[in-house]
Q: What sequence folds into this?
DNA sequence: GCTTGACTTCGATATAACTCTAAGTAATAC
DNA sequence: GTATTACTTAGAGTTATATCGAAGTCAAGC
């Protein structure tokens, strides 16, 4: 079991942020110790990592919550979750392609700088 | 010459946003018609595209302004601008690498869904 | 028993980047 | 000459994601 601070450390978040996520309904799966402290199992930790992955690829908290809600509903939502993930994968690919496009622009710019500014278009 | 709305269309921004950028000091190079309207030359358009590229790769407006300020100062800032661009390129590579890492996580997740949830880790 | 870590509520504050409103002016296009 | 487009100032409001602080409670470990 992990404490909130351990999870925070591992996932590069603050305990504050984790509680904030909890409040937003992103962590309904977390159990509590008899004294009321959050206890993260290995599986919980993996879910938090997945949440971070989704967040870091631009999924808004509300959509992540939707995914988690489906997850909590159980096996009936299996197909829906799978489709959501497949859709999000497309979005990540879109981001990568845009990033590549922008990298090209930057590379071109640096190439112009290396050519000592000759024919610099802008 | 392009009007503000044409540039907005081309760069997928609103005229509002372009005026906002202008106010923030990102577009000091734009000239005006005798009636006071903004006139974007081909070169200006390229610069706006560069600004969008920097913005879309996460550079904050203040840093973009700094770059534009250097640009307006002229050839003396050539080396500085080149170094800035090289540094930003590293940042873009970092983003791409993180995106790839996250794509892997998503792919793994989808693979588990395709395995019908067997051994689903989370 | 004292320190540390965790908990709660609640609200303030921050930050970035818009986004919009209003009210009035001025030139352009048909 | 009317509709469209663009301009101005100045400020209010929005969205998303935190981030912080206060104030008090509670339990565990040394």
A:
């Amino acid at each position: 079991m992990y404490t909130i601070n351990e999870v925070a450390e591992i996932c590069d978040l603050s305990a504050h942020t984790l509680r904030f996520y909890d409040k937003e309904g992103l962590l309904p799966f977390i159990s509590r110790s008899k004294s009321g402290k959050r206890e993260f199992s290995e599986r919980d930790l993996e879910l938090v990592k997945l949440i971070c992955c989704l967040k870091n690829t631009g999924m808004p908290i509300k959509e992540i919550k939707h995914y988690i809600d489906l997850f909590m509903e159980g096996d009936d939502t299996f197909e829906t979750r799978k489709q959501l993930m497949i859709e999000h994968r497309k979005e990540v690919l879109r981001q990568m392609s845009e990033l590549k496009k922008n990298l090209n622009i930057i590379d071109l710019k640096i190439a112009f700088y290396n050519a000592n500014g000759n024919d610099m278009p802008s």
Summary: The interface with chain A takes residues 43, 46-47, 49-50, 53, 56-57, 75, 78, 81-82, 85-86, 88-89, 92-93, 95-96, 98-100, 102-103, 105-107, 109-110, 113-114, 117, 121-122 of chain B (CB under 8 Å).
